[in-house]
Amino acid sequence: MKEKNLTLPIIIISIAIPAAVAFLILVPQAKINFGFSTKALPLFHALLNSTTAILLLASLFFIKNGQIKAHKTANLLAVLLSTVFLVSYVIYHASNPSVKFGDLNHDGILSDDEKWQAGSLRYVYYFILSSHIILSGVIVPLVLFTLQKAFQEKFDKHKKLARITWPIWFYVAVTGVVVYLMISKYY
Fold it and tell me: Does position 3 have pLDDT exceeding 70, yes or no?
C-alpha cells in the first residue's frame, strides 16, 4: 500500500494556526460573546499544559523502558490535550481583551507606577512569554511530522525528529504554566 504524503497539509496547518492566533491577538477587533463565561479558561489552559507536560514525561519514560503502546497512548493524549488547548485558547482570546503584565487596576494600560511596581519581573515574564510563543509556533510542524513518521513506521526518522520535538514541546507546556502563574493575578 502506498504511503500518503502529508507534507503539504502539515505545512499548511503549521502556517495557518500561528497566523490565525497572531491575527486574533494582535489585530484589534470586537470581542465575540460565546454565550458563556470564558474567564476561567486561562486556569483550564494551565491545567491542560501541566497535564501535557506530565504526559510527555510519561511518554519519555515509556519509550526508554520499551513500553511502545504506553508511549504511543501518552503522546496521542498529549496531542489531544494540545488540540483542546488550542481551540480553548482561540475562544478565550476571541472573547477577552489581552491582559497586560503589571496592570493592577485592569484598565488595559500600564501606568508608570504599575510598571515600577512590576519591576524587572516584567522583563522575565516577557522573555518567558516570548520564547513560549515563538516555540509554540515551531512545535506544531515538529509534532505533526514526528507523528507522521511514527504512523508511517519510519521509526529511525521518528526517533531522530522526536529528540528535537520532545524538549521543545515539553518547554512549551511547562512555560505555558509558568506564564499563567506569573500573570494570573492580573486577570
Answer: no
Three-state SS at 158: helix
Is 48 inside a domain boundary?
A: yes
**Nearest-angstrom CA–CA distance, 177 and 43:** 9
The reply to whether 145 falls in a domain is yes
Amino acid at 92: Y
Q: How many domains does the chain have?
A: 1
User: 102 and 122 in contact (C-beta within 8 Å)?
Assistant: yes
End-to-end CA distance of the chain: 53
Question: Residue 5 falls within a domain, yes or no?
Answer: no
- pTM of this structure: 0.89
3-state SS assignment for residue 152: coil
Copy the grid coordinates of residue 69: 503502546
Nearest-angstrom CA–CA distance, 46 and 173? 9
Structural domain boundaries, residue 154: 39-186
3-state secondary structure of 3: coil
**pLDDT digit string, tens, across residues 119-177:** 999 999 999 999 999 999 999 999 999 999 999 999 999 999 999 999 999 999 999 99
Q: Does 7 map to a domain?
A: no
